[in-house]
Design brief:
The protein has strands spanning 2-7, 10-13, 18-26, 33-39, 46-51, 58-60, 68-73, 78-83, 92-99, 109-112, 116-121. The protein is mostly beta strands. Strand 7 and strand 8 form a beta hairpin.
């Protein structure tokens, strides 16, 4: 069992930046592939980015790759998502997740945080 807690969400103007953090506790953090997903109102949960256990391999949803960066610090048991040039369509609840398979499918991840709201105004 691993517990995940997101932070760093908030309200930002279009074109601005936010950095989301995910703090993990419980099971050893390095055991898990980590990922970010997001869910906008009325929509399905959408893949954002994933990162391997060591941090050496990252994957992004193609439309976000130029603006978002995923990273992790295994010594601190934290993961982050740097979001730049934010657009109103980025508005969503952003979720931290942990699993054993680096995938873009939400059902590949076993543990989830409670989410943090990101709102981008035009």
């Amino acid at each position: 069992q691993v517990q995940l807690v997101e932070s760093g969400g908030g309200l930002v103007q279009a074109g601005g930046s936010l950095r989301l953090s995910c703090a993990a506790s419980g099971s050893p953090f390095r055991n898990y592939v980590m990922a970010w997903f997001r869910q906008a109102p009325g929509k399905e949960r959408e893949f954002v980015a994933s990162i391997s256990r060591s941090g050496a391999t990252t994957n992004y949803e193609d439309s976000l790759k130029a603006r978002f960066t995923i990273a992790r610090d295994n010594a601190e048991s934290t993961m982050l998502l740097q979001m730049n040039s934010l657009k109103p369509e980025d508005t969503a609840v952003y979720y931290c997740s942990a699993g054993l398979i680096q995938q873009s499918r939400a059902d590949a991840y076993d543990y989830w945080g409670q989410g943090t709201q990101v709102t981008v105004s035009s």
